[in-house]
Amino acid sequence: MPSARSARDRFAELVGTAAVDIDLAEAALLIAAEAYPGLDVSRYVTALDILASEAESALIGASGDSDRVRRLVQFLSVERRFRGNQEDYYDRRNSFLNEVLERRTGIPITLAVVYMEVARRLGLLVVGVGFPGHFLTKHPGASELIIDPFFGQFLSMHDCEQRLRAVLGEEAMLEPGHLRAATPKEILVRLLRNLKQIYLQNRELAPALGCSERILLVDPALSQELRDRGLLYEQLECYAAARDDLGRFLSLAPNDPSAEAVRERLIAISRHRATLH
Question: Looking at the domain assignment, is residue 185 inside a domain?
Answer without folding.
Answer: no
